[in-house]
Amino acid sequence: MSEWRKDPIVDRWVIISTERGKRPNDYKDILEEKKTQECPLCVGKEKLTPPEIMAYREPGSQNDTPGWWVRVVPNKYPALRIEEESSLSQHGIYMAMNGIGAHELIVESYRHEPGLDTQTEKQVEEVIWVWRERSLDLRKDSRLKYIQIFKNTGPVAGASLEHTHSQLIATPLVPVEVGQELEGAREYASRHGSCIYCDIVSQEIAEQYRVVVESENFLSFNPFASRFPFETWIIPKEHQYDFGQIREEMVRDLAGILRTTLRKISVMIKNIPYNMVLHTSPVNIREEGYYHWHLEIMPRLTIMAGFELGTGYFINPTPPEMAAQALRDTEEFYPLHERSNQEVYHYV
Predict the structure, then answer these.
(1) For 53-77, how does the pLDDT look when each residue is reduced to its tens digit (9 = 90+)?
(2) C-alpha dihedral sign at 15, 18, 21, 22
(3) Lowest mean pLDDT across 94-108, 170-184, 269-283
(4) Where is the Galactose-1-phosphate uridyl transferase C-terminal domain positioned along the sequence (predicted)?
């Protein structure tokens, strides 16, 4: 029997449709045609991208040359530009603003591979350090109010390049989705005197129905009101509202649980397309101490059609309890590539 489920954070209901249900093994491997054109993100092709903003590279190597293992460059076709002047205009009932912001591309490995799941745990750790470093640097521009880190994997999820990469877009506005989460967290804190995300973590650990992986500092689980089949969140057990607060031991732990989660998802459904977003507190405005940063992994196995677009309600044909059980049971066997120059990895 189908069931309406309410997200405990935002005012959003989801239909868990067991009537049209799909079990985990009903999702076939998603075959994608491999791209054959020259990859601008591979080592040795540095001149095909805009000049790098930063990189973790071997001592003595020069910018925009080989020797790097994580590299950040401006997006070649940016949605927003940091050089824009801040200017607001109004015409009748319509309001507009210059395209101020930042759009960066994080090349997550010098190897030509499609995802983080085939990287070493140390390499994933390095990517997380870059996310943090760019987040802390960009917030120095007081015009920026939110820094969105996200990753698209597979053409269905919007990735135009196969080479593993994530992106960062900094905006002068707080996104609507994040604003709804902030409001939900604020209202819950005013009623209960506690963090809704912390209470979710406590209940998920106690019940274990939707837990995928648990580590010392993080929990990976399928949300109660999952919008998508195998939607998985990774959240710190400790209350932290700002991703920039993450500590060194937490970065190591996050690298492990993120890689494990992605490997389980990718092993269970080969070539699975997904979007991953990091939701964190806004910057350069009041502190949102009741918020709780987290990663959301959203596989793209269903299509939003007329009902979803017209109503805003999601229909998920795979209950999160079933999805979590399947992911827990999935062995994360994967061939890994070991770096030859691990001794020059970044440390703080």
Answers:
(1) 999 999 999 999 999 999 999 998 8
(2) positive
(3) 94-108
(4) 185-297
For domain 3-24+43-84+94-333, is the CATH number 1.10.760.10?
A: no
CA distance 210 to 328: 9
Instruction: Provide the token pair at 274.
Output: 């997904």
Name the residue among 107, 108, 85 with its Cα closest to residue 97. 85
Q: Residue 144: is its pLDDT beyond 90?
A: yes
Q: Which residues contact 343 (CB under 8 A, 6 or more apart)?
A: none
Catalytic machinery residues: 165
More confident residue, 157 or 292: 292
Give the residue ranges of the annotated binding site for Zn(2+): 39, 42, 112, 163
Phi, psi torsion values for 71, nearest 5 degrees: -140, 140
* pTM recorded for the entire structure: 0.88
Place of tokens 């491997």: 29
DSSP state of 62: P
- The token duo for 197 is 């995300």
Q: Are 289 and 194 in contact (CB under 8 A)?
A: no
Which residue ranges make up the annotated binding site? 39, 42, 112, 163
**Interatomic CA distance for residues 316 and 198, integer angstroms:** 25
All structural domains of the chain with their residue ranges: 3-24+43-84+94-333
Strands 314-316 and 13-16: parallel
Which of 6, 2, 283 is closest to 137 using CA atoms?
283
Q: Please identify which residue in the block is written with the tokens 């979803």.
A: 308
